[in-house]
């Protein structure tokens, strides 16, 4: 059985920078309130008519391929994590395939929101392990800003979510010293309505109606307190699970890359694990929460900044809508 390894990572974020000051012009909020509760100082929002989930992910994918030193023709399969595909159907994977000119290879969509990228990485890892595919493009990308209620009522989520895309190339590892060691996936659907977007829905009389628009069914809804309380517990559980499964200790972690949900959550996890600042990567302060995009964007930026070195023990962890949570442990 083969082992899989991340060969390269890339990212793209929209050019438009939205500051806390700009948000305070839209809703009853201010910089101090946002920073205290989320740690976010600014975020990127897409420009309609310019940015799409497809073209952002294509730019991230091309960067990942360049860094992995492979050509597009070498990609055998695509696994795409997003809950904000450009079309209701078909999924984002085939649109990216077309954008990159990858004729006839398979494309799979993963809809696990904030934990979507680790779920996608786990799926791709299984394909590599069995030898079915040799090189897989794994993507996490979102445009969330168009689903935000930018009024006073929706401010608790509107100040958090943002747009962007990240991608990695997963390929066969030719060394036992490098690659994905394990992935761990969990979910609890009893909390689905704590963080969700109800429309468009296939279960109503129609998928889109004026009543849905009037009720705000197209806006993201989040119970922030419930999400926070569950997140800090599940993050710790799934990180410990990964460490225990592989017989390593928290002290051996070289870099923890958590889903960028909220800086307070990341700092809580860091404190519990007693990790110094240099062993935790955060970019939520200037990019916000890009849902499935956060971890691949962070991996790409961490590599750029020289914080990922060959042989490093890297832990990825995520929690979000579903509730669904996941972790992965790997040697870079």
UniProtKB/TrEMBL annotation:
It comes from the Bacteria. The keyword Metal-binding does not apply. Pathway: Lipid metabolism; fatty acid biosynthesis. GO terms for biological process: fatty acid biosynthetic process; secondary metabolite biosynthetic process. The keyword Lipid metabolism applies. InterPro entries: ACP_syn_III_C (IPR013747), ACP_syn_III_N (IPR013751), FabH (IPR004655), Thiolase-like (IPR016039). Its EC number is 2.3.1.180. It is an enzyme of class 2 (transferase). Residues 260-264 are annotated as: ACP-binding. It holds the Pfam family ACP_syn_III. GO terms for molecular function: 3-oxoacyl-[acyl-carrier-protein] synthase activity; beta-ketoacyl-acyl-carrier-protein synthase III activity. Homodimer. Catalyzes the condensation reaction of fatty acid synthesis by the addition to an acyl acceptor of two carbons from malonyl-ACP. Catalyzes the first condensation reaction which initiates fatty acid synthesis and may therefore play a role in governing the total rate of fatty acid production. Possesses both acetoacetyl-ACP synthase and acetyl transacylase activities. Its substrate specificity determines the biosynthesis of branched-chain and/or straight-chain of fatty acids. This is Beta-ketoacyl-[acyl-carrier-protein] synthase III. The gene is fabH.
């Amino acid at each position: 059985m083969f082992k899989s390894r991340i060969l390269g990572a890339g990212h793209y974020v929209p050019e438009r920078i939205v500051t806390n000051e700009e948000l305070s012009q839209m809703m009853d909020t201010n910089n101090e309130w946002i920073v205290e509760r989320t740690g976010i100082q600014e975020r990127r929002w897409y420009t309609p008519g310019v940015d799409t989930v497809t073209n952002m992910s294509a730019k991230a994918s091309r960067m990942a391929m360049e860094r992995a030193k492979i050509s597009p023709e070498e990609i055998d399969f695509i696994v795409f994590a997003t809950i904000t595909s450009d079309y209701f159907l078909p999924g984002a994977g085939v649109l990216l395939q077309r954008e990159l000119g990858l004729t006839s290879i398979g494309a799979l969509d993963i809809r696990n929101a904030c934990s979507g990228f680790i779920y996608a990485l786990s799926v791709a890892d299984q394909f590599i392990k069995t030898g079915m595919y040799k090189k897989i493009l794994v993507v996490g990308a979102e445009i969330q800003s168009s689903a935000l209620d930018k009024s006073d009522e929706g401010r608790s989520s509107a100040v958090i979510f943002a747009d962007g895309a990240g991608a990695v190339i997963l390929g066969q590892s030719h060394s036992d010293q490098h690659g994905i060691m394990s992935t761990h996936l969990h979910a609890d659907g009893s909390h689905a309505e704590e963080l969700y977007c109800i429309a468009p829905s296939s279960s109503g009389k129609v998928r889109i109606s004026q009543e849905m628009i009037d009720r705000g069914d197209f806006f993201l809804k989040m119970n922030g307190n419930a999400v926070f309380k569950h997140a800090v517990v599940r993050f710790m559980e799934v990180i410990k699970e990964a460490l225990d499964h592989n017989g390593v200790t928290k002290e051996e972690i070289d870099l923890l890359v958590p889903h960028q949900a909220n800086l307070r959550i990341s700092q809580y996890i860091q404190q519990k694990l007693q990790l110094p600042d240099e062993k935790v990567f955060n970019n939520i302060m200037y990019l916000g929460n890009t849902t499935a995009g956060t971890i691949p964007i962070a991996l790409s930026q961490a590599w750029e900044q020289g914080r990922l070195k060959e042989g490093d023990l890297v832990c990825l962890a995520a929690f979000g809508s579903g509730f669904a949570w996941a972790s992965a442990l790997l040697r870079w």
